[in-house]
Write a structure and sequence with these properties.
Number of domains: 2
CATH architecture of the largest domain: 3-Layer(aba) Sandwich
Strand order of the largest sheet: 6-7-8-3-9-10
Helix content: 25-40%
Strand content: 25-35%
Number of helices: 9
Order of helices and strands: EEEHEEHEHHHEHEHEEHEEEEH
CATH superfamily of the largest domain: P-loop containing nucleotide triphosphate hydrolases
Distance between the termini: 31 Å
Structural class: alpha/beta
Bound molecules: adenosine-5'-diphosphate
Largest sheet: 6 strands, mixed
CATH topology of the largest domain: Rossmann fold
Shape: globular
CATH class of the largest domain: Alpha Beta
Length: 290
Amino acid sequence: MKLSIKNVTKTYPNGVKAINGISLEIQAGMFGLLGPNGAGKSSLMRTIATLQFPDSGSIEFNDLDILADKTEFRRQLGYLPQDFGVYPKESAESLLNYFAILKGLSSRKDRQMMVDRVIDLTNLQDARRNRVSTFSGGMKQRFGIAQLLLNEPKVIIVDEPTAGLDPAERSRFLNVLRSIGTDNIVIFSTHLVEDVRELCRDMAIINKGTVLAQVSPKHATEQLQGKIWETRLGESQWSGLEGIATKLSDRYDDDNEQVNRLHFEGQATDDFVPVSPKLEDFYFLTLNQA
Ligand code: ADP
């Protein structure tokens, strides 16, 4: 199973070039699309979901040209937009039953089985008879996943699903994605590095409509081994390292003293303490070097 995106570009009528030549090869499993706000993540996802047409480039799912045959692709697609919209005062199971009818599941028995299955998969058993309008943010997101699973999609696209969720809801939501992401392609966007670290086998960092890196989170941190340091020296004191040391982030220690975190390839002095690389370091370094 493979989704191939080649040289896709998209400029909106207002002149914003949201996608500027993106190419990605995406295999089965969880794929994280990581980038700051405005990077072009939603634009790319809407384009893959065939909700908007690119100006140039191609997108193929296995041998299917999805831009030429979007009806066929949509049969195999589940898309959860950033804002899922209106939540009627209906129970989760009656709404799912209704969506299942719309999706063509005409046998009552098949429908019941499928509704039970997606409720189980998204861990909504206890809330199945409650109105969706009363759900918390995390439950609404899981309900969104439940409805898109009804037609057993092979490609699932979820736009910034963890935005606004509290830590417990976020963790429950990521567990649901984890359980559905093994056989399918699941692409989800986020600006949270932790989401990707916890979940994804592969990821791309995008900014200003371009791919800055496509790498597995594991490989990303491995390649920074021995190159990440912490120092209490101020930025002005890195004389001689200028141009080769990159500041990635900082923190404040127990004495409220600033500790800078740097990428530096070379022989460090005693003022530099080696630390284990984190995916966040790779993210900041990639954005910084672009
Ligand atoms: P992200 O999802 O990474 O935050 P978006 O794809 O939403 O990024 O936005 C990328 C850029 O395109 C931004 O500058 C945004 O303002 C612009 N943009 C997004 N959608 C539209 C649109 N429908 N019309 C015009 N500009 C848009």
